[in-house]
Amino acid sequence: MKKRLLSFFFCIFFFSPILRAQSTKLDSLLPVRGFCIGAPQSKQVDAFVKFINEELASRQVNTLILRVDFNFQFESHPELRDSIALSRREVKKLVAACRKNNIQIIPQINLLGHQSWATTTYNLLRVYPEFDETPHVKMPEKYVWPNADGLYCKSYCPLHPGVHKVVFDLVDEICDVFESNAFHAGMDEVFYIGDDKCPRCSGRNKAELFAGEVNAIRNHLALKERKLWIWGDRLIDGKTTGLGEWEASMNNTHQAVDLIAKDVVICDWHYERPDQTAVYFAMKGFNVITCPWRKPKIAVAQTHDMLKFRTTATKEMKPRFFGMMQTVWSPAGSFLDEFYGIKVNEKAGENTPSNCFKTMYEEIKKVSQ
């Protein structure tokens, strides 16, 4: 017993300065080293805690964004819970694992856009259909894109007088239970905004509507000293840049970039090319994080771009280049199956989220040594 204790304290004494030095250097190179994924289902919580302890911690990931949406047993609005949802006790397991490993945990609920997918209307608009920006657009029995209605995902109306009372209740509760000083509101790929048939939004400037919603969320969070994070695609001009309607805006919301508070953190995602729009956001005064998905070569290029920006930028710009964040758009369970080789997508070859994650963090380790 005594020998084990001596060995334990020796390890702390000997290795702690080394680990601190590595962490300090990494923090200087890339202040944010993130991972974004859907929150696990209840049955996957223990496996995900293991993943945090063994995989995120070993790679010195320091930020975890969990897309919760309605996968929590909300007390403020139990009518909006998923049928199977995380309990408070299960969330606290995730919080404890992140705290132990010095990982900032940030919950996400998709606000404004992404209120539906394919043929499914999500909980908010299903329970409160009066919040729908486009109630005249009916969900199809079979979804195809493109379609006559231009339906990708439903949005809620940002000017509906009752919507913020509901969504802010959810935001406050989820930030409290995750003990988080930041919240991710999503807000990507918003196609429906300022619809001509909306009695409140019709004829209004789409950029002002988008900025108004971002600022409303930001100002609510600021009441409890919390920061807002969002995806950046709606703030990029899709036509001028040639990035198109998915990675950028084709409905003029990009002008909102000059109308929103500068302390909003921008998660800048590009998956097919290493487009350097992080510079654009930093020049606009925002802190920005570059986000890859499934292509390892793209992620490596983006990592070196971010390092170059931090090395060559002015002293005013450098702190705005926050770092890198791997994004995963499959459920947590299927990602873990892929990561541990339980289920392999042979058709995808090297281009998988798990391989992208491993490759990007191997590259970060390499450049930090």
UniProtKB/TrEMBL annotation:
Keyword Chaperone among record annotations: no
GO molecular function terms noted in the UniProt entry: beta-N-acetylhexosaminidase activity
Gene Ontology biological process terms from the UniProt entry: carbohydrate metabolic process
Domain Glycoside hydrolase family 20 catalytic residue range list: 85-293
Hydrolase is among the record's keywords: yes
Entries under InterPro entries matching the protein: GH, Glyco_hydro_20_cat, HEXDC-like
Stored SUPFAM superfamilies: (Trans)glycosidases (SSF51445)
Keywords of the record: Hydrolase, Signal
Source superkingdom: Bacteria
Pfam families recorded: Glyco_hydro_20 (PF00728)
Signal peptide (from-to): 1-21
Family note: Belongs to the glycosyl hydrolase 20 family.
Listed name of the protein: Glycoside hydrolase
Upper taxonomic lineage: Bacteria, Pseudomonadati, Bacteroidota, Cytophagia, Cytophagales
